[in-house]
Design brief:
Blueprint: H1 2-10, H2 13-20, H3 24-38, E1 43-46, E2 49-52, H4 54-80, E3 87-92, H5 94-101, H6 105-111, E4 116-121, H7 128-131, E5 135-139, E6 148-154, E7 157-161, H8 163-169, H9 177-182, E8 186-187, H10 190-199, H11 215-223, E9 228-232, H12 233-242, E10 246-247, E11 260-265, H13 273-294
Parallel strand pairs: 3-4, 3-5, 8-9
Antiparallel strand pairs: 1-2, 5-11, 6-11, 7-9, 7-10
Helix pairs in contact: 1-2, 1-4, 2-3, 5-12, 12-13
Family: Belongs to the LysR transcriptional regulatory family.
Domain HTH lysR-type: 1-53
GO molecular function: DNA-binding transcription factor activity; sequence-specific DNA binding
Length: 298
């Protein structure tokens, strides 16, 4: 069944073989053996590819439900025996890991040394249960179907610059700062900068000198003095607190729902003590970040 399940998920024998650490021929033989025992095929062969047929889809759906029940049973048995989950597998974006989570993991280890975290950074949204993850830290509108969703924070967009550049710009009058910024190298999204200048009372068509597909890289570029960034406040939090970046006066793009940060996890894990401990710790750390940032309001 393991060979069938792995192949059914990917509809690719080679990928299933790699996942199971078997040869391609071994997986193929196990599937043929299962089909022979059942007396009917489970896949449609299309050239070199395969696809689940109706019987295969029915079996796969039933197998996934049974697998979930088995995992629940194992967790219940573990709890009844007095054992606790010793590790949690989680995923988040590289920017969130680099700019916010990793700098705080030392505190997690000190406070909860018995719960190991296995962190994977991914840009894409994955199926947590199919990929074997306990929870994910996501940014977006949410909620995500089939998952419990806990909102952590809405991250505003603020204007930041390296200290030397910020000091030079601070000489401009508050009323004239927006016009001054418009002539400086700007980093980030053109549409968001256009919104910012509109809020500042300046109608300008903005062409940033550099843009990035990763919020962490945007903040890093601002730290390096490349220009002025319109960045997510949360990702810039530690740099602001440490003095590596300075927030400039001006409008704030308030936390639109697409910029919310969430904790998501399968409903079957809602009572798992280790996961609940991590969720509570994340909420506390996020609240602490929010308090520190509010204390720095311009």
């Amino acid at each position: 069944m393991a060979a069938f399940r792995a192949t059914a998920r990917s509809e690719n024998v080679r990928a299933a073989a790699e996942q199971l650490h078997l040869t391609h021929s071994a997986v193929s033989q196990q599937i043929k053996s299962l089909e022979a025992q059942l007396g009917y095929p489970l896949f449609e062969r299309q050239g070199r590819g395969i696809r689940l047929n109706a019987a295969g889809r029915a079996l796969h759906n039933a197998l996934e439900r049974a697998w979930t029940e088995l995992e629940l049973g194992l967790r219940a048995a573990s709890a009844a025996s007095g054992s606790a989950m010793q590790s949690l597998k989680l995923t988040c974006t590289p920017s969130f890991a680099q700019r916010w989570l990793i700098p705080r993991l030392g505190r997690w280890q000190a406070e909860h040394p018995h719960i190991a975290l296995k962190l994977f950074t991914l840009q894409r949204v994955i199926d947590l249960e199919q990929e074997g993850f306990h929870l994910a830290l996501r940014q977006g509108v949410g909620p995500w179907p089939g998952l419990i969703n806990e909102v952590m924070m809405e991250s505003r967009q603020i204007v930041v610059a390296a200290p030397a550049l910020a000091q030079r710009l601070m000489g401009a009058s508050p009323d004239g700062l927006a016009a001054t910024l418009a002539d400086e190298p700007l980093l980030g999204d053109a549409e968001q900068w256009t919104q910012w200048f509109a809020l500042a009372g300046l109608a300008r068509r903005i062409s940033p000198s550099a843009s990035f597909n990763d919020g962490g890289l945007l903040v890093q570029a601002a730290e390096a003095g490349m220009g002025i960034a319109l960045a997510r406040e949360l990702l810039a939090a530690d740099a602001l607190l440490d003095g590596r970046l300075v927030r400039l006066p001006g409008p704030v793009l308030e936390g639109a729902v697409q910029r919310r940060y969430h904790i998501v996890y399968p409903p079957a894990l809602k009572d798992e003590p280790a996961l609940r401990t991590l969720c509570n710790w994340l909420h506390e750390e996020m609240a602490n970040s929010a308090r520190q940032l509010r204390g720095m309001e311009v």
